[in-house]
Write a structure and sequence with these properties.
The chain contains 5 helices and 5 strands, in the order ααααββββαβ. Helix 1 packs antiparallel against helix 2. The chain is α+β, with helices and mostly antiparallel strands and 158 residues long. The protein folds into 2 domains: 4-86, Orthogonal Bundle (Helix Hairpins), CATH 1.10.287; 105-153, Roll (SH3 type barrels).
């Protein structure tokens, strides 16, 4: 006969899988409302949440089975702290990139001046803004775009 703890562990794990699927579908439905650049942000969030929720569900299921998960949780906390410090700038650029994609303060073709660089925006992505002027290409980290003074000259094309 199956033990009550095994049933509880299975229910907890399946519940986390179902929640991750529901959130995944909601994020994909929301992504359809935005352009392709913003939808890539939603795909990233969708994949991340699925991985995190399934992992948390597995940890809780092992806990229901009587395993001591304190060491795993502590190790994950310390690892997360170390990774957060190591990837601070990359995460800052990613979050700034998502904000730029959602709020759209600039678009391709705009002439901008930021961080002592000026030129025409030729590419926007989640890490940096690419501008070109007089043959020079400048890659401006997104976090600078949100923290420095920006001059934007919109160029209308007809």
């Amino acid at each position: 006969m199956v033990d009550n703890a095994v049933i509880q562990a299975i229910v907890v794990f399946v519940l986390f899988i179902v929640v991750s699927i529901v959130i995944d579908k909601a994020l994909k439905k929301l992504a359809c409302r935005f352009d392709s650049e913003a939808s890539s942000s939603f795909r990233l969030m969708s994949n991340s949440q699925k991985t995190i929720l399934i992992f948390v569900g597995a940890i809780l299921a092992f806990s229901k089975l009587g395993f001591d998960v304190t060491g795993i949780v502590t190790g994950l906390g310390l690892t997360g702290f170390a990774l957060g410090l190591a990837l601070k700038d990359a995460i800052s650029n990613l979050v700034a990139g998502v904000m730029i994609v959602l709020y759209k303060p600039i678009k391709l073709g705009d002439r901008i001046e930021v961080a002592n660089s000026r030129g025409q925006v030729v590419d926007l992505n989640l890490r940096y803004i690419t501008i070109k002027d007089d043959g020079a290409t400048h890659l401006i980290p997104n976090s600078l775009f949100l923290s420095d003074k920006i001059t934007i000259n919109n160029i209308e094309t007809n």
